[in-house]
Amino acid sequence: MILVAFFVIAIHTCSLSIANAEKSFSYKFYVDDDGHTDVTVFFYDTGNGTSWILIPKSQKDYVNITAYRGGILNVSYQKLVEGGEESPFYVVMKFKYETRDVVNLSISYSMLYGSLIIEPKAVFISPRVTHEGAGSTKTITSLPGYVITDKKGVSSFSGFIKDVEVTKRGDRVIVEASISSDDRVVIEYTVPFHCNMTDVTIGSFTFKTPLRYLDFAHDILESLNESYAIYKDVFSTELKNVEIQFFVPSMRDLITGLEGYVPFEAGKLGAIYLNILYIRGVEGFMDVIALHELAHHFLWAIGVPPSRLWIHEGVAEYISLTIGRSLGYARAVDMHECGLVSVWRELDDNLGFVQKWTPFYTPPQGLRYCYAASYYIFKTLCDEYGGLNYLKRLFELFKRIDWSNDTQIIEAFGLAANNVTGIFALFHKWGFEFKEPLQITLLISRVKRNISSMPIWLEPYKSLAGIAIWIAELLQQYNVPCGTALMIKASELVYNASPYLLLVSLAIVVTAIALSRRV
Prior knowledge:
Elements: E1 24-31, E2 37-45, E3 49-56, E4 64-69, E5 71-82, E6 85-98, E7 103-111, E8 115-118, E9 121-125, E10 129-130, E11 136-144, E12 154-156, E13 161-169, E14 172-180, E15 182-183, E16 185-190, E17 197-202, E18 205-210, H1 214-235, E19 242-247, H2 251-256, E20 260-261, E21 264-265, E22 268-269, E23 272-275, H3 285-301, H4 309-326, H5 330-344, H6 367-385, H7 388-398, H8 406-417, H9 420-430, H10 441-452, H11 461-477, H12 481-518
Parallel strand pairs: 1-11, 18-19, 19-23
Antiparallel strand pairs: 1-2, 2-7, 3-6, 4-7, 5-6, 8-9, 9-16, 10-15, 11-14, 12-16, 13-14, 17-18, 20-23, 21-22
Helix pairs in contact: 1-3, 3-4, 4-5, 4-6, 5-6, 7-8, 8-9, 9-12, 10-11, 10-12, 11-12
């Protein structure tokens, strides 16, 4: 995306059970040089009972429980259901315990990419700090001693954070903070090193990546090359030397949900940048983001300016989700599309605001609604008029239009659908505005040429088609765009059907003559 999309590794409210006041949880995160993180959850209670915490699905078979006082009777896992859907990332770990006085135990597991590092930038994003009970939760994060950070770099997804302390203890930097009980702690930091990047080239794509993320880069390149033939066919053009890189997200990027972007600099598109966070997402999600960004490069190659952002983002959303599903990433596609659908349902077909959306101006409705509306426009048209084949016809027309003319742009959508009148009516319904007259002079000229080439024996249908196109020209002069398009359509129908109409007419005449002789 040139701007933003939606952040799918979200914080949700977990409604399981209410804690007793005596129970307490605290979290410790130990981060190594490559971002690998050991997570330890300390639990305390003053008597027998049960409790629960969220555990990453990938770690449930590797959880280690240590009882310092009291004992664990049993541990069980159940699905985490939020918003009617099973979480792809977490399960609920329930545990039962007993004691003569107090219970004091720890629950530990590991995560490979707690910190995301592309030197000199890095960010630690904890797993969900979610457990039984409300209120705040104490967290302690232990980072390598060379890390540079301060209190301003410490935050949480919810925005609630207090008691922040950053200290140096021996060969470690310790960050303490209290966050809400269903949240994540985020620490932005730098390291005094520069990243050794490696280049991997497959086909038209070169990925510049740190060695630690090489496998992810290779998988993305495979997806891009597997889908390249589809892009080339739909856009009827090719690309050369497209560069791709990961980037470390800032807290602002996390809040806005920035998945990827393509900068526009010095009159051309730059490299594709992908948010490294999404290596922690479901399978294929990062690949779908890359497919989205690739669409921007193809759109630029056929002449679509970034100023027409609703076209860029609508096409990129539609084509990446469509191709992503064909590559087998249905779960990632469904997650992303679910977010778009939930937003566009709030719009009630009021979509025209995206017409003013540019890289320099976001309509008051906000980015979420701009993306959802743009996607809905293209999904509606593609579902009705032929999917990727409709886009292929549309892109051929895009190569020859005046991008400063809103009416001519919408006319291209109508011509690709072979339904100019219906498409104009649909865009009017959505709230689009057109200051210029309908640009159909070339279309009228083409139809007139077709009519003039009709043989004389196709009369009277040649004359009828000519009358219809004459009326179309008259209506165009009086600035009646829908009526003009309707008469052009009528003329084209007569022209295309004239041989069959002639046969029907001859059959009627022959039948009439035969019947008259019998009488």
